[in-house]
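ok so dumb question maybe but i'm new to this and my supervisor (M.) told me to 'just get the structure for Heat shock cognate 70 kDa protein-like protein' and walked off. so i did the thing. is this what she meant?? sequence i used:
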Amino acid sequence: MSKKVKGTAIGIDLGTTYSCAAIWLSRKKRVEIIPNEQGNRITPSCLAFNDSELLVGENAKNQIARNPANTVFDVKRLIGNRFSDPQVQNDMKMWPFKVMKGDSEKPSVVVEFKGEEKKFAPEELSAMVLKKMKETAELFLGKEVKNAVITVPAYFNNQQREETKEAGTRAGLNVLHLLNEPTAAAIAYGVDNLSDENWNKDKKTVLVFDLGGGTFDVSLLTISKKGVIEVKAVGGDTHLGGEDFDTSLINYCINEFKKKNTGVDIRGNPRALGRLKVACEKAKRDLSSTIFAPIEIDCLHEGIDFSTKISRAKFEELNATYFDKCIQLLEECLRDGNMKKKDVDEVVVVGGSSRIPKIQRMVEEFFDGKTLCRSLNGDKAVASGAAILAARLSGNDDDMKNDVVLLDVIPCSLGISVKVNGVSGNMDIIIPKNRSIPTSKKITLLVNQTRVDIIVYQGENAKVMDNILLGEFELTGLTLGPDRKSKIEVCFSLDTNGILLVSAEEISTRQRKSITITKI
Ligand code: AMP
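this is what came out, is it supposed to look like this??
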């Protein structure tokens, strides 16, 4: 992480619903959020394909009701996932655009573009959003942007990270680092607050609660006065956020429509679903500041108008399970980081969905009435943290007061499955999630055959098929001892760049093999 690169480097928060780009301005000694051509600091992560062109951002979002089947959003929910994943199958039911099974189990988005049917892999679509962010930055800065730090949810697994990185490369960017979103927010918080005179401790424990459009990330960190940011634990859910709250409202409205119109179901009408989605998201946002929000749509389906009024209490009731889940995951993160709630000095809330009053109340109550820090602008904190790291990695941080040092943890457990007679079933965890990096761990295996296959996985599930395959290698010609067994030492070694070296050595003969897996 310390290697410096040439050229302008920006930070990009690639969000499920919105994206944001930022740059560290060394002359002004601050981060600048890069506005888009409409002058907004956030750009919808939305794409629209039509007969003549591709629209990205605001223009794409604005025409969704007219062209729902060819307007694509939520790509972050697809990236790195398999088509058959239950979450993908579930999400698909709510999308007005078509998703099919593509190559090697990957989902593929099918749209009509310039009069032809086109299929796009998730990383190709994310690349279009990233390209737009790059071009917007170039227009604003008046120079080419070559490098970027891109943020990802802390909970993203290897495949999701690989494909996000691939999207960056396809967009013409040199991806300096994939930074966990809550860590990015913590860097922004750290740089904003390091000179705070009220900071009377050497080290502060900060919990970052980041509830966005598609993902929930929670991170427990310590920040020292010297600028060392040490991540203690990360947690969350890659499928929990504002979109789920929208879906609850949409489902409620679908049922209301059914009730009012003797069983008429609008589910098969993508245009109606698209319009309802826009109206529900707006009502949800309104409910953060009002007690009632109307939803009124003319000619929603078969010429029938739809009109209802949602109360804040109803909204909270519809989403109670999701809200409770956030608190459970928060508790889990504290447990993983071996901390009690009283150890936490600051609770920083970021992400658009953390504006929901009920969520704020629940977090405050969890921390026994502690006042939450909302000073970080959710829309820009993540991009700001990424911009600060980008400046540091590209050597454009001479004027940064404090040298930010980042000590991270691994977001998902790493382990192996040992294939015996061609069968591999379960994964044994070697390095559990939330272990600080760098780290290493050795285990000894007793093998009763002359060949052993070591298969490396990432994930939290006991069954290998539910985890992500990272790589495999074999040791052959093993020498069995008098007990018909050979002793094999397997070593996992993970460096600060997230590069994993897995080696296996037969102790009696010193025969050794290893593989290197990059970007965990
Ligand atoms: P983010 O990914 O952090 O940009 O968050 C985007 C999500 O926040 C979307 O689901 C928005 O609908 C949601 N959001 C933005 N503002 C509000 C608000 N005032 N109240 C509730 N949700 C909001």
